[in-house]
Design brief:
The chain is of the alpha+beta class. The chain has helices at about 5-15, 75-90; strands at about 20-25, 30-35, 40-50, 55-60, 65-70. It has a five-stranded antiparallel β-sheet, with helices on one face.
């Protein structure tokens, strides 16, 4: 699987939530999204596609301690994106010491 194969799923999903997809970082193809809480705290959601694996992995983290991986495939990617986004939203109001 390639980023071009998941873009038709990722792009409308991100547009629905008014999220920007970063597609290049240091001359490398990426799919990364910054999510900002109402109070201005940043979170990241990004997708990895490994050369030896045909399925994407969706990652979320709070730029600090909290992080989680979600394993997806082409059929359930939108559902996994929703689950990952809801996890980030749940972090908006929780504090980690």
């Amino acid at each position: 699987m390639s980023y071009e194969m998941i873009d038709p799923i990722l792009e409308p999903w991100a547009k629905f939530y008014n999220l920007h997809i970063y597609k290049r970082y240091k001359d490398t193809d990426v799919r990364s999204i910054d999510v900002v809480s109402p109070k201005g705290k940043r979170f990241q959601l990004w997708l990895d596609i490994q050369e030896n694996d045909s399925n994407p992995t969706v990652h979320v983290w709070d730029y600090d301690k909290r992080k989680k991986k979600f394993f997806a495939n082409e059929e359930n990617l939108q559902e996994i994106l929703e689950e990952a986004y809801k996890m980030i939203q749940s972090w908006f109001t929780t504090v980690i010491d």
